[in-house]
Amino acid sequence: MTLKVFQCTQCGATLFPARYFCPACGGGQWRECAVQRGTLAESTVVRHRVGTQGAGDVHLASVVTSAGPIVIARLESVMQFGDAVRLNLDDAGRVTGRAM
Amino acid sequence: MQPSPFDGVVLTAGVEVPYRRQAGAESTGDLLAQAFDAALTQAGFSAKDVDGLGVASFTLAPDHAIDLAWRLGLSPRWCMDDCHGGASAINLLQHAIRAIQHGDANVIALVSGDRFEPADFKQLVEHYNLTTRTWLRPLENGGPNSLFAMLTQRHAKQYGLTRGDYGALCVAQRGWAALNPHAAYRTPLTIDDYLAAPLVADPLGRFDCVPVVSGANAMIVARADLVRNAVKVRVRALQCRYNHDHQTGDGLQTSLATIADDLWQQAGVAPDDIHMVSVYDDYPVMALAQLADLGFARDGDLRGLIARIASRELAVNTSGGQLSVGQAGAAGGMHGLVEAITQLRGAAGERQVAHARLAVVSGYGMVEYRYGMCANAVVLESDRRGAQ
User: pTM of the full predicted structure?
Assistant: First the structure.
């Protein structure tokens, strides 16, 4: 599935996740915009998670989408600052990123 | 003297039920009741004097403030649940002051606390709000550590800081914790210990993340003329601001940056006048961000700020902060406020800051997607002028 972000039809502000009203102009009408790529801003390796042991590392990143909003994505592999990222929404509802 | 918008109301008790790393037999309600009892004793009031109750807790469910009021034997005229996490105590205080000034209540108890087994904490961080449940939990992100790891990277890059700079703050707070008999961690921490600790989420290591504990805090807010023998702490300024950037920024500034000018103007004092500071230290980066937002980093110099904290020229988080004492859920929002009240009462024992008369306390919290939405601050003044 394709990840969608939300653009205010009144002022053009583009946000993720979705809101009811636009914080910039107060408008309440939105158009969905598909985003498929972005640029990696930061990444981290989650090595310890509460309630889990030996569950393995999780690679996460902040990705600036081509539409503007920043999303948190799970990476398939280690990526670096500035890398181009292909974004997807998988069957488990996860925003995922991989190298383009 | 000019009339203050906070006239007629005082804080007259601030207590902590010692935080524990291992949850004991007591339920969340039990811990809140213990805090309530200790606060009444400190204030010199009876439960029958209390006509207002405010509660902040993540684990009191299915009970709410009114259920706790019933268990405490109270018939409140003012009753409030608060869900602002690290900003809850100052949020509750904002409302309690107005309730008393306008005659809706005379003596208000504000309590906060949580009891956490590891499973309770996992439940909390995975279902913190709908955004977390929908967009972060499926990533198996393990709670907020990963978000603040990336925020710390942004901060380090912007200000040219290294892991050792954040570590210096943790080491300084541990130094204070060594003087606090109720801190979960009191063993002195060296910068080498800090740097050698296992990474949790790069670049955050074990000592950047608050220990999860069980415990509770309470305060009594009362009409000033009803307080007889207890020490009084007055509010000089209080400001709250939530969602200042709607999660569209970098999170390096909290909304304190937007309210600091009004706060200091309302207080009639400046950062240099302040004797002790409590900032919400869920992570060292956020302690630094709040201090900078409040105006404590001269010329934006964060390294200089850290050095002044390390030398105790600036007394920050003198309990040891949540980084050493632990984070008891929603009590975390009240921990720093209680420490400030304790210092202003002159009751901080070995860690007492000499001549502490003015304090500033900030709250921060409620991570929506990438960082906290809420921040607030209060400037407090002791009426024990010259008493120390």
Answer: 0.97
